[in-house]
User: What shape does this take?
Amino acid sequence: MIEITLQIIATVVCTALFVLATQKWLGAMQQGGYKNGAFWGWLSKKGNMFFNRLSVLAYSIALSVCVVALCFSFLGARVTQLISAVPFLVFTIAFLCSDRKFALKVPVNYTGRAIRLNIAYSVLTTAFFFGVIRLLGFLSDVNGSDLYGVIAYVPFAVAILCLPLIFTLANLVLSPFETARNGKFVKRAGQVLSQTQIIRVGVVGSYGKTSVKNIVKTLLEEKYSVICTPASFNTPMGIAKTVLSTDFAQKQVFIAEMGARRQGDIKQLCSLVKPDYAVFTGVCRQHVQTFGNEQNVLAEKSEIITSGAVTVCADSLKGKVEERENVRFVHADCIQNVELQATQTKFTFVLGEVKAEICVPLLGESAIENIALGVTLALEMGLTFEEIKNGLAKLQPVPHRLQLMQNGGVYILDDAYNANEKGAKVAIQALCAFDGRKCIVTPGIVECGILESQLNETLGEEIAKANLDKVILVGETLVGVVKNGYLQAGGAKENLTTVKTLALAQAQLKDWLTAGDAVLFLNDLPDVY
Assistant: This one.
């Protein structure tokens, strides 16, 4: 009985240490949408040293424990095991301390699902490690030798390398339960929506959804009480969380951002939200990796029109979408005399014979397009000139969407969430509006499938045309293609630098930037890329 108790204690302690040492895996799994394939892609990605460090830990423990165990084996198996625990704990704790330096860009969000996965992972790890200990004990009894007891920590240490398999197995086991649970959650949200008279607005498109959503919200708040999905929450679960929140019942308008990565996503979201109004920002070759081509992207996004919602479409969609009775194209003539300045945008808001001069802290051509979409929808929903004018005066940039900040006289354009060809071009143009030295930091554009090389080469060409003073390409996945496009377009080689991480890029900038300079951070990829 004492033997079993000691084995259980050893198992629990080791499980706790190694689950704690691998908490980053939860973050990577979250960023990959809880898909095992995405997790393994992150773990095996070139430049990701986490598994290498884990392997070094395993072999360091195995070697040190083996040496210590053999040196003290004359004291008997029980005493040797206790002494061997010292290097085991020392190396593991050292790993935990050193690994703190390698933080994920996007930290773990301990949602209910993440906690459940962590528990399942801990249970399976405990069972696995206890099985290893019991097997060693069995072999020791069968062979009548203390050797298995003496070197118990050696195979135990090597078993650490099985942890990724255990982690993905835990996720696989939980997936049916999580799918069913999410389905019930979304269904309940649908029931709430069907029982309320709230006005529903959907926002779809390959780009600009979050920016347009926030513009629409700001304008509509001049007439209605409004709630919208937060940040970039644009999945059934993200929408359901908003609908089932305590604030939802008191609102008159619900704005739902609708994302799509695969065929059927928009139709599913329309079935859930049943939008009365919608904004269609446009399409580009983003997500071609999952849709196959741009035409399929257009067909999927156009489901918002098929749903019957009164849909305000961008000018770029003329001739691309079916001009039904419920389709409205943007009133571009409402926004006149546009001045795209480095730190702000000025324009004249015109409605019939009435005019108002507006100045907003939004940058780039896309800001004007997004504002025009928001104004058109506001007019459709009955807002007056004064209400829209007042709303326009309150517009603020969305974090990480061409957001301008200043630090020590340096202008920082934070466009970290930008990941499409159209937005990248607009961001570079916005950077060029500044007078001082200019720098761009980017890892390239992702999720474009077979077009990824072409689009990133074009990005390199756009950067070269901008004639920037410094270009920093981050990472190893796409930078080679961006670099080729840049050099082939005549970009200055001496201005180009390639680094492995954003932290290294920031270190370079610290010594380079001075007051009056401007730097654009274009598309800060999450860890899974």
The CA atoms of residues 410 and 514 lie 6 Å apart.
